[in-house]
Amino acid sequence: MKKKLQILGTGCANCQKLAGQTEAAAQAAGIEYELVKVTDINDIMQFGVMMTPALAIDGHVKVAGKVPSIEQIKALLL
User: Of the residues 5, 8, 15, 57, which is catalytic?
Assistant: First the structure.
């Protein structure tokens, strides 16, 4: 089943880093995924996120306000 990975952030350097790390983790985990960047502040606030960047997996926020390592993201995906 394909996972929906959402990067919540306005496109800052950390948001871009989180997107890259998330993609690398998903590929390393060998899962099917769709990567979506949510950049509209109102859409981000609907997730209840106050600090970006944030990572949501299948609509559930897993990390906010920091960029976890590829291994940490991989653990969240499996």
Answer: 15
Name every residue whose Cβ is closer than 8 Å to that of residue 30 and which is 6 or more positions away in sequence.
none
Q: Give strand ranges (E) for 1-78.
A: 3-8, 33-38, 54-57, 60-64
Distance of alpha carbon 9 from the chain centroid: 9
Given the residues 4, 12, 39, 60, select the one marked as catalytic.
12
Active site residue 12: yes
**Which tens digits make up the pLDDT trace of 29-75?**
999 999 999 999 999 999 999 999 999 999 999 999 999 999 999 99
